[in-house]
Amino acid sequence: SPSGGSVASSEVSGGIEDNSFFIGFRADSKTALIASAQTEVLASGSVLFAEGDPADYVYLVIEGEVELVKDSKEGPSVVLATVKPGDFFGELGVLGYSGRNVGARAKYQLV
Predict the structure, then answer these.
(1) Given a cut of 50, is residue 100 above it in pLDDT?
(2) What is the 3-state secondary structure (H, E, C) of the chain?
(3) Residue 20, Cβ density class (10 Å: 0-12 exposed, 13-18 middle, ≥19 buried)
(4) Sign of the CA dihedral running 104, 108, 109, 110
(5) Can you give the pTM of this predicted structure?
(6) Nearest CA-CA partner of 49 in 109, 104, 108
(7) ∠ CA 46-54-107, rounded to 5°
(8) Mean of all residue pLDDT scores within the chain
(9) Strand partners, 104
(10) Is-contact 40 61, C-beta < 8 A?
């Protein structure tokens, strides 16, 4: 899990059960996933994970924004996408692909 402040999952789990990530899950599976969720709070600019890190979590943005970045040999990292509240990311790695193919950092304070 990324480093940062923690918040009890019950404090932010309200409303996420309708997120599109959970489409196709049985009700009991969805309930179990939400109950086991971990919530992190990260300051703006904090790195959530780096390119090449193990893919061990799926992330759902509650508040703030995340930049998905690709390292560049010619200069600074390139922002490939911005993930906004209600969006999820990181699922491809968890579904069996190798390590993270991009990095992720908090654009604004992130929950």
Answers:
(1) yes
(2) CCCCEEECHHHHCCCHHHCHHHCCCCHHHHHHHHHCCCEEEECCCCEEECCCCCCCCCEECCCCCEEEEEEECCEEEEEEEEECCCCEECHHHHCCCCCCCCEEEECCCEC
(3) exposed
(4) negative
(5) 0.74
(6) 104
(7) 20
(8) 81
(9) 49, 68
(10) no
